[in-house]
Amino acid sequence: MTERMTLVGFMQAGNVTVYSGSWRYPSADLSFLSMDYYTRIARTLERGLFDLMFFDDRLAMPGVYGDSVADAVRYGARPVKLDLTAVLGGIVAATERIGVGATYSTTYYDPFHVARTFGTLDHLSGGRAAWNVVTSVNDSEAQNFGRDTHLGHDERYDRADEFLEAVTALWDSWEDDALVLDRESGVFADPDKVHEVGHRGEYFAVRGPLTVPRTPQGRPTILQAGSSGRGRSFAGRWADLVFTAAPGIAVAQQQYAEQKEAVAHAGRDPKEVRLLPMAYTVVGETEAIAREKERLFLDEYVHPLASLALLSEVNNYDFAAHDLDDPVTEEMMAAGRGIRGLAEGVARHLDRPVTVRDLAAHRATLLQGPRFVGTPSQVADGMEEWFRSGACDGFVLAATHLPGAFEEFVAMVVPELQRRGLYRTAYEGTTLRDRLGLARP
């Protein structure tokens, strides 16, 4: 366990947070098509000394449910996804210290493009760039890139492993001292310190070198979320930060131990990798205020068809054939890797068979990970319990609504965490790796 919590702000470049009812909250800012919206949130998180803000992404509207995007559009179930390169560029210009990260797919992009994008971002941000590695999840994304269906689970990870091999080779193709910049002699850089990559594998052929010199971090920081055995193995090899989902502290402790073991098995130091479950905080001046906010989030703002649109998307399974009150069957659970785990997690909280409505509510509200609700002291109590018990090294905090959820957390909970010695009181070092205490590759 690390000495102080790592905190990451989880973002979407669109109309909702990961909570699909967030746009309906009365005080939510709906100017998500303006740069000011994102820079305001970034400055709030930087004021709260967050290590990083990173943006989730999908490369399609949710269109699996009923083979249509209609309900996703009608009910605001993540139909808007802005290009992250432009969004992060604006955030970099508006901030000084906080890390900035984006999701890029190893299934639908190419290694040279990703290496150049994040190498550039690392330079222009002064060493603050992070890449959230995903393999993509559904057929809707495949169909936006000229394919009928997405790759199978194991093949996606085979491709991702080779993708990372090519990207890291490109990032390493310039040695640290390759740039000479000698005006008098006219020598710009030492060609003996700039190397072709010459990668040729099953999925990619990349000559190199990269057109971006070695970056301030050496390599941008890598995030990855993968709960399957193959996903944990991949994270053990590549990730600096592992984004997890755990319904309770006991599961999180088990995941923590297993992922650290996977890191060691890959020949890396487990202390060099942070495990960060996604969590919500609902904070109020009194517990009663916080509980009423929680009730509103759970009961008032999520439309069930928005829930089903997102549930179908993430599991690549069309739930339109089922009524909301249909029980979840063995056949349904066998149809998608994520459905069984989700159903089993929901079942722990019920004394009756799990229905499609239960799955949808779990996916679209606040039930996917720990939820810390109450006064600043009560929220800090919950976070401290997870942190000190070997369940995590910090948290990826998802917002119930923006910008208010992050503003309340920074104003009320951060000072309490600092008072307990759980959280920094100032940024350390100059790069994101410095602040995370990670070695420069």
TrEMBL record:
Binding site for FMN: 57, 103, 153, 157, 227-228
UniProt KW Flavoprotein keyword: yes
InterPro entries, alphabetized: Diverse_substr_monoxygenases, Luciferase-like_dom, Luciferase-like_sf, NTA_MOA
MF term (GO), any: oxidoreductase activity, acting on paired donors, with incorporation or reduction of molecular oxygen
Entry keyword set: Flavoprotein, FMN, Monooxygenase, Oxidoreductase
Entry superkingdom: Bacteria
Family to which the UniProt record says this protein belongs: Belongs to the NtaA/SnaA/DszA monooxygenase family.
The protein's name: FMN-dependent oxidoreductase, nitrilotriacetate monooxygenase family
